[in-house]
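User: Good morning. I'm curious how shikimate-3-phosphate would be positioned relative to this chain. Could you predict the structure with it bound?
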Amino acid sequence: MKNIILVGFMGSGKTSIGREIANVTGLKYVDIDDMIVKEAKMPIKSIFAKRGEDGFRDIEKRVVIKAAKMKNVVIATGGGVVKIPDNVRTLRKSGNVVYLKTGFDTIVDRIKGRDDRPLFDMNNIKGTRKLYTDRLPVYRKSAHITVITDKNSVKQVAKKIIDRTGL
Ligand code: S3P
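Assistant: Good morning! Here's the predicted structure, ligand included:
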């Protein structure tokens, strides 16, 4: 059985959809952000504050290599994992990379009121929208499959992914 790797912008549902796929298929759920927090022994916000984005990406890259070696897993990545081409190569070798495509307005609705994402700035929505727009083509190119999540429930999206990846 091939691994499934979920990529997409913050708030695209990687965690909840990943957990649902794991429940239905018996694959093990693996979360790159959780592994990073464990390895750094501090929350993501603190990693960014202490080591900057570059420091965060260094840990992320190491964790991606570790996760990609696992078998029979569904991996939820962080939204910026595709910034590093090596990560994309590593993840594509590990399994089916699925892009969870979600409209920016849906994302804002899901994320507003939370402050655990250093790169999602509600006070600079123009800048956040630019980050979103810049990343769209990178997600598309990184993934084997694109699935639209807006207006679909977690269960519906998970089912679509399971059907399309032939699990
Ligand atoms: C990031 C997304 C976050 C987390 C970090 C950086 C990004 O993960 O990895 O804050 O660069 O888009 P989620 O996509 O799970 O929020």
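The beta strands are 3-7, 28-31, 73-76, 95-101, 145-148. Helices lie at 14-25, 32-40, 44-68, 85-94, 104-111, 125-142, 154-165.
Let me know if you'd like a different ligand tried.
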